[in-house]
Amino acid sequence: MPINFVKVEDYDKKIDIWENAAGNHSKSKLDDMQIKDGVNRFDATVSYAKAIIGTKYKDIQDLVDTFTYLHEIKGEYEKETYEDIPYIISYLVDDARDSVIVLSGGGFAYKTIDGSTSGGKRVAERLNARGVNCFLLHYRSNPYKFPIPILDLQRSIRYIRKNATKFDINPSRISIMGFSSGGYIIASYINQYIGKDFFPENYREDDIDKIKDDIVSAAMIYAPLTFRYNVPMLHAVHPYEQVTDPEQREKLLKKLELKNNLNSENIPQFISYSDGDQTINYNGTEDYIQALQLNMGEVKVKFIDNQDHGYSDDLYIDDYVEWLKEQ
C-alpha cells in the first residue's frame, strides 16, 4: 500500500538559509544507515518512540535509521545524499516587536512539521494572533550528527538578522523556541554554542557567518535537557562507533548533560514541562531548572500537571507570550 505524504505547510514559501551548508557533501546517506527491510512507516514510528525511553543503553541504530529513511527520505522531505539545505518559513504580522524562531521536535530522527502542523504552523498562527512574528526552521537531523542541527539554528539567527530589513523586523528582538528534541537543540545552543565557531574544517565562511548570533530569550517546551533518561536516543545524534563504545558513550552523556554545562545564566529562559510526560522524564527538567536557579539564571517555569508528551499549545502559549513581551 502506498504511503500518502503531506508536504510541509506553506512549503512554497520556504527560504533557504544556506547555499553551501556546513557539513554537507555528496556521499549517499544510505551508505551510513542501518535500514531494516519489510517495515512500514507506522510500525517504525511506534518502535522508535518506545525504544528511545530508558536509562539503559540499547543498540537501536537500525530503528533510528529505518524511521528516518521511511519518513524523511522516502517521504521526500530530505535527500538520499548529504546535500539538504536548511530553510525557514516566515509568518509575519504588522507592528510586531518580537520575532521567534521555532524548532519542532521529532526525536532527532525527523521533524514533526514534515507532514503535520505539530510544533509548526499551528504555533506560528498562535504567536501571530498575539502579535509575535514567527520563523519555522527546518533543520537537518539523522543521519546528520551533532553539531549540524545546532549549526542550523545558529545560521538561522544570523540569516534572519542579516535580512531584518527585508522581513521588516527588529533585528535586536530575536528569540528562539523549541519543542521536544528541538528544545534540546535550543538549550544546547545557549549553553554550549552561542558566540562560538564549530564549523567543520573544510567549511568556507561567508558574510552571514560574521553576523552576531545572540538572542533575547529561549524557550524549551517538553524538552529533554539530558540524555540520561533517553540513553538509546544517542544513536540519533552521534556516530555509531562512539555510542556503542561504553567509555565514549559515558563521555557523550556527560557532554550532553546541560545542567553540568551551564553557560546561559544571562539568557532569560522559559521552560514548560509535565510530570505526566511518558517520553521525557520530568526529573531531568527539574534538575536543569534547579541548576540554573542556583547559578542565578532567570527562568520562568510553566508546569503542566499530568499531561503526556506533546500537550496542547493552549496550556502554555499565553504565559509564554506575556513573559516574552516583558523581556
TrEMBL record:
InterPro entries registered for this protein in UniProt = AB_hydrolase_fold, BD-FAE-like_dom, GDXG_lipolytic_enzyme
Under Gene Ontology molecular function, one entry of this record is: hydrolase activity
Signal peptide start-end: none
Keyword Hydrolase listed? The answer is yes
**Domain of life from the UniProt record:** Bacteria
Q: Name one Pfam family in it.
A: BD-FAE
Residue ranges annotated for the BD-FAE-like domain, each copy included:
98-287
Q: What is this protein called?
A: BD-FAE-like domain-containing protein
